[in-house]
Predict the structure.
Amino acid sequence: MLPFKLYGYSSTLIWADNAPSRPGTLENMYGGGVNIISFHPPSSQLPAVKSGTSKLQSAIENNEDHTQAQTLIRRYSRGLGAEGIVLSLIKIGDKWFVTDLRMLYVS
């Protein structure tokens, strides 16, 4: 993965690995001010972490010939501080390009 910059609250950033959560872990601390980034399939009704999945691939929905894809990027910081953005991509040759970013929800 190439380095990239995220903008928002200046606080700790935690990548949620979609593994079952354990009580007391930092990512479960309500109101702690951390930013949690996770990926989910856009067709899921709720952007909840699915227990037992740990691969990013399970969060990507492809078309039949794998030339187009979508994923839901979820950012959560606390309480009602979250948003979900659907990222659409298209494959040209061996490279993927972002074609659309669409806000699915915000709280």
About this structure: Residues 46-55 have pLDDT under 50 and may be disordered. Residues 13 and 35 are 5 Å apart (CA to CA). DSSP finds no helices and six strands in the chain. Residues 36-47+56-107 form one domain.
